[in-house]
Amino acid sequence: MATPILLLNAGSSSIKYQMIDADTEEVLASGLIERIGQDVGVLTHKVNGEEFVANEEYSNHSLALAAMVQMFADHGPSLDDVRAVGHRTVHGGDKLTRTMLIDESVVATLEALSPLAPLHNPPGIAGIRGAQKALPNVPHVAVFDTAFFSTLPPASYTYAIPTDVAERYHIRRYGFHGTSHSYVSHRAAELLGKPYEQTSQIVCHLGNGASISAIKDGVAIDTSMGLTPLEGLVMGTRSGDVDPGMIAYLHREAGMSTDAIDTLLNKASGMLGLVGASDMRDVEAAKDDGDERAQLAWDVYIRRIVGYIGRYFVLLGGIDALSFTAGVGENSSSVRRDVVKGLAALGVTLDPVANTLRSKEARAISTKDSAFAVLVVPTNEELQMAREVKAVIA
Ligand SMILES: Nc1ncnc2c1ncn2[C@@H]1O[C@H](COP(=O)(O)OP(=O)(O)O)[C@@H](O)[C@H]1O
Ligand SMILES: CC(=O)OP(=O)(O)O
Ligand SMILES: [Mg+2]
């Protein structure tokens, strides 16, 4: 008896999905709907080694989801066999801290948290609504990006603002990409051949959004994203850390509204703001062509990562492994090379051949005499979600 589970990972302009047999962990189908909200969207559906592509306008996430359902109807596998649907849900706040069945009160809480994750929670909710309509008779389960970080100690999650304000508005650091940090750190422990609970690790999730986590004895103790997924590293379109004084300054001096500043920092900053392109492949190509703006953006990006790793290295008192994951972390050997170059004081060294080898497998890229292992571990948020959903419906 197979247990097919449908996993939905709704982003601001895309939905990634997989159907996984939770018993064998076999991928039964996978797909990606891109450019939701633009004139022409792209839906790519993969099943049995075949690929089916549709180009249509998907003006919102509900319509995109309806197109996905149609793909399953036309090309299989049948959605009738699906036993549960898992939803990547970005902000769970301080109430929703573990994988759980979705009911109306969960959706209401997610709606209330939307201001804290404006790029992520609204599409997540649209995904839940659309999937509930398409698959009304199976359990729907929410898997939170924040859950892995519910173990952060107060010294890590507390902002130095008046306690009554923090409490009234639930202002604290939550952390995101937790499903990925959890999957990657467990996989890294396997590669190290050490029990998870005995590992100290730093994980760099470098995708469009990016974050770093510090894990001590198998417990997350710090991470670079905070109240919202804006804090920390430089990202595709997000600034990461800035002096918070900049917000009031822009408001007063440039006459910008709070919404305009929010959009500036979340959607027009990062690589896009510095170079005019949010995709690291474009930034790297421009840098290699001698574009000075791209070189500066690259240096800012790398320096921020190196700074966080140094800080977490000290906090952890040394580490067993530093892992790179997500779109940039898995694919850009130059980002990995330059980050490790910046960490020379820690005695870490890369094997340049292993670093540039292209592979989809988790692997070590450091030399034998490196002070700690450097790993590339392809993330698999959907598989991690399938495991958690299976446990919840059991
Ligand atoms: N070969 C590559 N070199 C550098 N960056 C890459 C490469 N392939 C993909 N990327 C980067 O990965 C990003 C997407 O990462 P991903 O983890 O899928 O992000 P998200 O889940 O936030 O959409 C792209 O925006 C691109 O910048
Ligand atoms: C939380 C977050 O930043 O997610 P993503 O990287 O998918 O944008
Ligand atoms: Mg992602």
From TrEMBL:
List of residues binding ATP: 16, 205-209, 279-281, 327-331
Compartments reported by the entry: Cytoplasm
Xref: Pfam families: Acetate_kinase (PF00871)
Keywords for this protein: ATP-binding, Cytoplasm, Kinase, Magnesium, Metal-binding, Nucleotide-binding, Transferase
Domain of life the protein comes from: Bacteria
Cofactor: Mg(2+); Mn(2+)
Entry keyword Magnesium: yes
Cofactor note: Mg(2+). Can also accept Mn(2+).
TM helices/strands, residue ranges: none
Assembly and oligomerization: Homodimer.
Similarity section: Belongs to the acetokinase family.
Protein name: Acetate kinase
Gene source species: Propioniciclava coleopterorum
